Amino acid sequence: MRYEPARDPARATGRHPGGATLRAAAVQTGPADGATAAATGPHSATTGPHSIDEAKALDKALAAEHAAVYAYGVVAARSKGRTRRTATAAFDAHRARRDRLRGMIKSRGGTPPEAEAAYSLPVVPRSERDAVDLALDVEDGITAAYIELAAVNDPSIRELAALAVQESATRRFAFRPEIPTALPGLQ
Amino acid sequence: MRPRPFSRRALLSGGALGLASVALSGCASEPTGPATPSAAPDPDAALLRELIAEKTSVIALYGQARAPGDELRPFVERHETHLAELRRRLTGGTAAPSSPAAAASPTPGGSPGEVSLSRLRDTERRSAAERPRQMAAVSPSLAQLIASIGACEAVHVSALSRLM
């Protein structure tokens, strides 16, 4: 998820705006993909020509986590009871993921992007339902960000991405028990 | 190497293109006889076959499950979506448009009501837990598909718990 910084509120586009959420950059498998894999053995994904840029994907995932931490602060503040407890747990989980990503970026010699001071959310929750809608939007964006990260070459990052996608999709279900797609992050 | 953002449609059709090339290269090599010992297997094709077999078994398992009403049907449909996409990747989009459910033959002797929701949940949990490891050595686009399938299976674990 990448909500725009609050200093640019004109970019907020509605309740579940496609433009405000980070969608997965699905990798297109080119004609050489299979051939390369066959030629270079089981770890060819680490040298494959169609993976995405690792540093950029890590930065995007971290940016999404920054936004999620911000958004869950709002969700928790505008909800109560079970929704609030779920939002609080989600806040903690995303903060932990954020810190892990920061560490990974630093360990690779990068500079982790900082959080914005504020974000322009697609909807300011005025009811419990609004708060849940925002939480679903957050998790959909997080899922998309980690699906994108799953295309990097480093197997350890792929594993992190896979686990994060599972957590995000499950957390979405905890907020509202519906399963809108068979392929989260891709459909 | 540049990031190549594509839509899901592009992903799926791109995956099909990629596998088409795999299939074509596979066809081209067949007349030359058995694979040489030095030829490494295509990790994507090998895993796709494994996943297709697994999905077929899971769909069959759901067919033997006991649940009120038609509550398991959406679960089966999502698995069928996974199966269809996996087959498309393997065949390069030329798979016969048969119903995945029809191809999933139940275990001999199995009948509806013999499989508990608890067993289904355990199966989904094991599948989801396997996905991160399976992604390690495959192409980036297949890694994304497996991650997405694993997420769906993880949600199935929660959803089945609500039915119990």
From TrEMBL, chain A:
- Biased-composition ranges, Basic and acidic residues, are 1-10
Q: Where is this region: Disordered?
A: 1-50
Q: Cite the Gene3D superfamilies for this sequence.
A: 1.20.1260.10
Q: Where is the DUF4439 domain?
A: 57-186
Domain of life where this protein originates: Bacteria
From start to end residue, where is composition biased (Low complexity)?
Answer: 29-42
Q: What is this protein called?
A: DUF4439 domain-containing protein
UniProtKB/TrEMBL annotation, chain B:
- Residue segments, region Disordered: 90-135
Listed Low complexity bias regions: 91-108
Instruction: Tell me which domain of life the UniProt entry assigns to the organism this sequence originates from.
Output: Bacteria
Compositionally biased region (Basic and acidic residues): 119-133
Sorted alphabetically, which keywords does the UniProt record give?
Signal
Q: Where does this protein come from, organism-wise?
A: Sinosporangium album
Q: Where is the signal peptide?
A: 1-25
The protein here is known as Ferritin-like domain-containing protein
